[in-house]
Amino acid sequence: MFRKRSYSLIVIGLLSVMTMALLIYGSRLFTDIEEETHITQENRIVVGVSQLGSESGWRTANTESVQETFTQQNGYFLIFNNARQKQENQLKAIRSFISQRVDYIIFSPVVETGWETVLQEAKEAGIPVILMDRNVDVEDESLYVTCVGSDFEKEGEKAGHWLERELVERGISSQAVNIVILTGTEGSSSQIGRSAGFAAVAARHANWNILEEKCAEFTSTKGKEVMKTFLRRYPDIDVVVSHNDDMTFGAIEAIKESGRTVGVGGDIMILSFDAVRGALEMVADGVINVDIECNPNQGEYLLRVIDMLEADEQVEKKYYVEEDVFTIENVTQELMQDRTY
Ligand code: GYE
Q: What digits encode the pLDDT tens for the residues 93-104?
């Protein structure tokens, strides 16, 4: 009897504690949501970001940079969309940002052409468009406010200049050099610029034979596949130029499987772009000869641009991010830094 009563007392006690907790927690939950909606509508800057995909380590770092920048604490409400490498998905995302009447549209165009109509729609809706990473090819430049990204042509030239110096240092600058190129997404600014920059340097050297240039879509799987066909077709490749680290990883696998060696002291020189951590470690190990950095940390630049626009200040048409070149000589120091990608 005594036992039973104390048991039911415990149950009643527990139940009331649980009800109280639920009430307190419940009301906190509601005020949080209310506060959030309130801030969203009244104070926050709403930014719609159309990211082109998630094809590479570089892209992941770029997405993280955007997501860490446009936070609620920084006063932003971010609507993020991943287009999975399809222009039609980007067009859809941008149109949905327009209909949601966002304050700014940021997007990284997967290719350069085909944007006039949608950009005109954004302009008519009075929504400023900021390009991130890659550029668009439009006649009317007033269709976008500014572009934050890299100088891809310069990156391509840097790769060419490194090869020029390396051949001189090895004392073989007048010998024939056989080069294959793995290119990124066809028609993207990074592909166009890197190809043009490297070609401009190569054109000055009659002994540089570009055997073939083929698209491997910035992915590791494709990089391996295309490299395998190169190796079957050309028995005497001296240099691989690969438009990003992911394709480089695939290409190196293919070369090793074919029994040839890569990097410093190897059969085939590897020139890569991006300089993500995994690739820099390979530079340190002498597997990749040179990595031309492409800086994905563009969030802070975009934030500054929006601050300027909010203050009605004039912005430039193009902002270039800072970038370096890494070889076995300077990479160790870089790897010791607090690098985010
Ligand atoms: O190099 C590559 C990514 O446009 C700079 O896109 C970007 C390129 C980058 O997929 O890894």
A: 999 999 999 999
Which residues, 6+ apart, have CB-to-CB distance to 22 below 8 Å?
none
Q: How far is the CA of 133 from the centre of ligand 1 (A)?
A: 8
Placement of tokens 């000869």 in the chain: 289
Q: Cα Rg for the chain, rounded, in angstroms?
A: 26
Alpha-carbon distance 121 to 81, whole Å? 19
* Ligand 1 atom closest to residue 246's alpha carbon, by position in its atom list: 11
SS3 content of the chain, % helix, strand, coil (to 5): 50, 20, 35
Q: What is the pLDDT of residues 181-219, one digit of tens each?
A: 999 999 999 999 999 999 999 999 999 999 999 999 999
List all residues whose CB is within 6 A of at least one atom of ligand 1: 55-56, 58-59, 133-134, 150, 184, 190, 218, 244, 273-274, 294
Q: What is the predicted pLDDT for the residue at 338?
A: 85
